[in-house]
């Protein structure tokens, strides 16, 4: 029996540019057709790909169990169609517990949830001098330890501090496993960053945050990223990074991609929430430790899009930062773009860039402004 075909019409961002028309799809995009009668005020973008998600809807991925599914459902409502579940620095047993939950969530995508593509292991292989909101349970990485975690749930991205003993030699081995190694929570020098890039580092974790800053005498890890990186993460919540610094990064790094670094506080009212083993406070949209330090965010990807536009970024360029660039970073050409054969991961926005409908691998989370039809003759 042939699957039903869905159709969405509006101003569609395709790999060739904007097209006023309609996109027809089942699980994958079937065709994109011009249609002069399509509503030009409706915008159809590729689904957002978020490679750094700790939590949402009041739960944290480190809690294990079905929390990853709950988090994936919360972010799907804001246009995130695929994501990486992200861990915190913790004891090995706690990390294993979180990975068990992520592995279960990856077995089969639950209806109404974003696809969990794998794991972003953020810690414990970081510097105690640049903990940020991570607890001081850090250690140096070994290949055996990474392989152990990787066997529980596939690690797609791993954050480490390259200046720690043994890490530089480990980077090529992790790259051979297909793991994208990122520099983050690092007290390293510019030279440490360049050496890590030469060894095979692929990107930088929440650029500017949790790393040595740029100084014209000592460029630091930030300087290494701005001078040499092809890819890097950025948290565009307008709190972690000044808009001017965001524009510097967008100009310097060809394939910068945006992440939320979202915590359990995302989508929730002000109050106290968990971030790994620590308690964080959400107040006026900002998430902090008791010390006042920023501790992840309450950002969603649709708000990230609006924030980028607010600082002068073009809509297509902003979309690439949220969809195409992170998909390409993971080597996933069938995600992050609206093209025949790609997964039907779509976000429908109104003229104010508010989410009206989301399709995840063809599943429509809202039928607003959509229609279905039988298979073509």
From TrEMBL:
Listed transmembrane segments: none
Protein name according to UniProt: N-acetylglucosamine-6-phosphate deacetylase
Pfam families: Amidohydro_1
Amidohydrolase-related domain span: 43-356
InterPro entries xref list: Amidohydro-rel, GlcNAc_6-P_deAcase, Metal-dep_hydrolase_composite, Metal_Hydrolase
Matches recorded under SUPFAM superfamilies: Composite domain of metallo-dependent hydrolases, Metallo-dependent hydrolases
Domain of life: Bacteria
Gene3D superfamilies referenced in this protein's UniProt entry, alphabetically: Metal-dependent hydrolases, Urease, subunit C, domain 1
Keywords, comma-separated and alphabetical: Carbohydrate metabolism, Hydrolase, Metal-binding
Similarity comment text for this entry: Belongs to the metallo-dependent hydrolases superfamily. NagA family.
């Amino acid at each position: 029996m042939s699957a039903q075909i869905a159709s969405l019409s509006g101003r569609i961002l395709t790999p060739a540019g904007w097209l006023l028309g309609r996109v027809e799809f089942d699980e994958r995009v079937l065709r994109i057709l011009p249609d002069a009668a399509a509503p030009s005020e409706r915008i159809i973008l590729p689904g957002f790909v978020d490679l750094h998600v700790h939590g949402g809807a009041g739960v944290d991925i480190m809690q294990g169990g079905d929390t990853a599914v709950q988090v994936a459902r919360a972010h799907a409502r804001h246009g995130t169609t695929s994501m990486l579940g992200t861990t915190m620095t913790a004891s090995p047993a706690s990390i294993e517990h979180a990975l068990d939950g992520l592995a279960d969530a990856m077995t089969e995508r639950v209806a109404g949830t974003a696809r969990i593509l794998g794991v972003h292991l953020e810690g414990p292989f970081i510097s105690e001098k640049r903990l940020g909101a991570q607890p001081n349970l850090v250690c140096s990485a070994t290949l055996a330890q990474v392989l152990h975690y990787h066997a529980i749930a596939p690690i797609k991205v791993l954050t480490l501090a390259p200046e720690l003993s043994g890490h530089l030699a480990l980077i090529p081995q992790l790259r051979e496993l297909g793991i994208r190694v990122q520099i983050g929570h690092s007290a390293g020098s510019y030279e440490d960053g360049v050496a890590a890039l030469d060894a095979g580092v692929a990107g930088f974790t929440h650029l500017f945050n949790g790393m040595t800053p740029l100084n014209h005498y000592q460029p630091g890890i930030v300087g290494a990223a701005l001078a040499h990186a092809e890819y890097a993460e950025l948290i565009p919540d307008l709190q972690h990074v000044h808009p001017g610094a965001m524009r510097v990064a967008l100009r310097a790094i060809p394939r910068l991609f945006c992440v939320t670094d979202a915590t359990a506080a995302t989508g929730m009212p002000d109050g106290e929430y968990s971030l790994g083993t620590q308690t964080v406070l959400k107040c006026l949209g900002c998430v902090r430790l008791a010390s006042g330090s920023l501790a992840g965010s309450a950002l969603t990807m649709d708000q990230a899009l609006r924030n980028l536009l607010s600082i002068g970024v073009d809509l297509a360029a902003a979309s690439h930062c949220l969809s195409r660039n992170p998909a390409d970073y993971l080597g996933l050409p069938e995600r992050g773009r609206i093209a025949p054969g790609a997964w039907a991961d779509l976000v429908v926005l109104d003229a104010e860039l508010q989410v009206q409908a989301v399709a995840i691998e063809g599943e429509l989370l809202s039928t607003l402004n959509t229609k279905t039809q039988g298979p073509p003759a």
